[in-house]
Request: fold
Amino acid sequence: MTKRQMEWVALAFFAALVMLVFQQIATSMVEQGIASGGAYDNAASYPRAIAIFLGGLIGIQAILLFMKSRSLDAPVRTEGRGRAIALLLVFGGYLMGLNWLGYHLSTAPMALTVMLICGARPGLRLVLVALGMAFGLAFIFEKILSVVLPGGTFGLNIPW
Amino acid sequence: MFATLASGFEMFLTPLAVGLTFMGILIGMLVGALPGLGPLMGIVLLLPFAIGMPPLAGMGFLIAIFVGGSCGGSVSAILLRIPGTPLAAATLLDGYPMAKKGRAADAIGIALAASALGGIAGGVVLIMASPTLARFASSFGPPEYTMLAITGLFTISLISEGTLVKGLMACAFGLLLSTVGTDEFSTGFRFTFDNPNLMNGFHIVAVVVGLFAVSEMAFQVMGSDLLSSPTIQKVQPGLGSFVRVLRHWPNLLRSSGIGVFFGSLPGAGGDISSFSAYGVAKAFSGSHENYGTGEEGGVVATEAANNATVGGALVPTLALGIPGDASSAMLLGAMLILGFVPGPLMFVQEPGFVGGIFLVYMLSNVFLLVAGIIAAPLFIRVLSIPKAYLIPAILILCCIGTFALQASVFDLLVMFAFGLVGMLFRLTGYPLSPVVLGLILGPILESNLRRSLLISREGYWIFLDRPVASALVVLNVLILTGLLVSSLRRMKKARGGKRALNP
Reply:
């Protein structure tokens, strides 16, 4: 993917946001009766004004993108991209499974996998580091700060 | 002023508040020293911990992280030639050559002492200027606050890295995010999609941790030095550095003044102030001084300036409720979560809390010198921990911290989603700080704008009817016009340069 294409992706993200604002004003806010009236009742005027402002900026940025030099056609940085994607997949999966597996079952494997993604050599030392990290931080938050971490379906919480 | 300070003593003089301030300095220095983190990340990661504490102890902890983090970057700048934070980028100009000459301990000691003294100078200005500014602002009404919020948003968008348009787009994104949830006037639901988790909008900590910390970790993992552990010389700075810094007192005072000035301007952070102070110190230097080759004065100038910036940044944050940069925006967010609304009213209704903040800030700077000198070898050791171990630890901290806010897994998913948005922004050069400012200033802007229109009989003309508001309107127009002209000129120049290269 080139830098220019990446810039277009960012612009598409902002454009989708603007469209979402107008879609919500036209549907949900109209249904609730908060899309018209004076400053007190009209909850849509402020987000609408910002969306219009953002829409204008998207237009300017699009023009600038068309005008910009060929340097934007260079590919975006690729080294280490696989590691970043793997990290996000592992971390995203961990967050999705947190409610089900609970903190104590899932955190040390996540930490271990992230260290392996970073290129650490597998071994007992790495496992101990991962366990120390997960349970050390859990001890600080659960014991000292009385935070109840997700126990998952097994209801695993350590009575420190 | 003295009454405010005196009333702060009672809240401040507790073992918890003093202990957490000391701990905040240590943590701040650690996150400052580690390249890629910094004071903002430290505040973001430990905000959930702080808001579970008594108000002043929690704020003392966060302010100390801000102070310690602003100085911690100098350690890696001096020893490794890698500034831990952009704030310390100017410090390496003379700090690293000093280390190469075998004077690393002196350079670190001078950086610590100059930071502490610069910070104290910033504190004196904070204590004197913020009550005066708050008194002046007590006559402000919704129109003035609307315009002040716009000034804050404009300057941060325009001064942050990236182009003018991208800064403004990031700011508008933050403003839109702040509208999610229940509207305080009509009590209608906006952008909630019938999801009860969104009734109060996105939790600011989940958004900021995702934008800054998660995306930063994903970027760090792309680097090639994940397992490297740099060899660093062992140094132990001494208290003698304090005397060395005092020998440079004109430079120290001048640089602290520059730091306070830039700190109090919305958008201009410690990096701008430290480079400016370095430039001024160089211009004022004597013929025997050779800046850039290991001059003590260079380290004094940059470190005094970047820590004085913290005091300056707290002036508008406390007195007006308008933060100067992303770190002070997070402090403002923390105060709001703790139930204190920064602004002129806070000085009248909560003098003890305000006085406590002043004292905590001053004590942080004293602790900076003491803790810095005692714990410098520890920070140096931390620099040799490979990133492969730090990345998962920070990710776990992000998770526990965000979850602890409301015991909500939904917040964790919000954090992750904003981590992806942060990645997109970083890859395409959109600055992240304006998003935070937009998110925090958004509700202030909207409620004051709507209140202004409610009390106005002539619609938007109310902003021109009142002298302070109209002056701010003119200021905002001038800022925007000036920066538009300068960016157009820059574009023209860049194109001219390219044509000259490829005729």
Q: What stands out?
A: Residues 3-73 of chain A form one domain. Chain A touches chain B through 74 residues (CB under 8 Å).
